[in-house]
Design a protein that fits this description.
The chain contains 11 helices and 17 strands. By secondary structure, it is of the alpha/beta class. It has one domain: L-arginine/glycine Amidinotransferase, Chain A (5-stranded Propeller). Helix 2 links the parallel strand 3 and strand 4. The chain is globular and about 50 Å long. The two termini are 23 Å apart.
Length: 343
């Protein structure tokens, strides 16, 4: 049975969001957080559906009213489902195909190594399936922890990931690398796993998710966070990560085309803690690629230009995500794509 883990740029039926509300960690930044979600819906809805999870019917009405103010009247599907947090990238279903038929994998989610409450989030995919929200050809529960932000696919059998996350004892249940490699190959159908042993972002709660560090932009190309400032705390680790990327070879033995994107200027919270702002936390849609930016015109413009080099044929739309990183995540983290043919 042929299994494929499609790349994010493959045709999607929807993007899944869990809309923030006053009982989530966004309570102190709720208005600014909602504005980002509205921007996302406005950017995505002309091209595909959005599946929006709501706390209750009152919350759904509130969201609907907000979207109508911005002339969003179609391609939005609401569903009431209780959730702990809004990071659907990490507890949402992973879309794959088997013999060409699209289906969903429900990996286990444990709050990034039992750091945060997760029990409601871990039930979301089963509830949506039971409620008939989507109709995958198959829906399989996978009995080990894996977050969507920790893996990135090129669509032809290769994934990028980090040792710091996948081999962390708070995720792997002491599985060794060889066992984990086999699990990934069996479930995702991948034949090549590229492990990064270096690279991190200060303030990251995820133990170095790949979607903040390096991403495929096509089958043979990778965009990655880089740092040229020797005074920046990330300089050495990101240089070591860059060296690792230069050593990787694709399935026909060629080096990958590499596109560095400079790390944003430091952004800190009110207590002086650096926040994990990343430009590679971008999102592919059926239309534009959405690029998170952080209110630094010089750095944001440079990141746009650098990503455009990697994606010359794509429209790139900048989304101001400064409010998102106050909760230590960004644009890709709050979204999960659902493959065409499932919704």
């Amino acid at each position: 049975m042929a299994t494929c883990f499609p790349a994010e740029w493959h045709k999607q039926s929807a993007v899944m969001l869990a809309w923030p509300h006053a009982d989530t960690d966004w309570s102190d930044q709720l208005t600014s957080a909602e504005q980002i979600y509205i921007q996302l819906v406005c950017a995505i809805s002309p091209y595909q559906s959005l599946l929006i999870l709501c706390k209750d019917s009152q919350h759904q009405t509130h969201i609907s009213q907000q979207l109508k103010k911005h002339a969003v009247n179609s391609n939005v599907i609401f569903h009431i489902a209780p959730f702990n947090d809004t990071w659907t990238r990490d507890y949402g279903p992973v879309s794959i195909t088997r013999d060409g038929k699209p289906g969903l994998l429900n990996f286990q989610f444990n709050g990034w190594g039992n750091k945060f409450e997760f029990k409601l989030d871990n039930k979301i995919n089963t509830k949506l399936t039971t409620d008939g929200v989507w109709q995958p050809a198959f829906f399989n529960d996978i009995p080990f922890v894996l977050e969507g932000g920790s893996i990135d696919s090129n669509g032809t059998g290769a994934i990028l990931t980090t040792s710091a996350c996948l081999l962390n004892k708070n995720r792997s249940d002491n599985r060794n690398k060889q066992v984990l490699k086999q699990l990934l190959k069996d479930t995702l159908g991948v034949n090549q796993i590229y492990w990064l042993d270096h690279g991190y972002l200060s303030g990251d709660d995820t133990d170095s998710h790949i979607d903040t560090l390096a991403r495929f932009t096509d089958e043979k190309s990778i965009a990655y966070m880089s740092c040229d400032d020797e005074g920046d705390e990330h300089y050495e680790a990101l240089k070591q990560m860059e060296a690792e990327l230069r050593q990787f070879r694709n399935k026909i033995g060629e080096p990958f085309r590499l596109f560095p994107i400079n790390i944003p200027s430091p952004i800190h919270d009110e207590n002086g803690n650096r926040l994990p702002a990343s430009y590679v936390n971008f999102l592919f849609t059926n239309g534009p690629v959405l690029l998170p930016v952080y209110g630094d015109k010089t750095a944001d413009t440079r990141a746009y230009a650098q990503l455009k080099l990697a994606l010359p044929d794509k429209q790139i739309v900048m989304i101001d995500c400064k409010a998102l990183i106050l909760q230590h995540g960004s644009l890709h983290c709050i979204t999960m794509q659902i493959l065409e043919g499932i919704l």
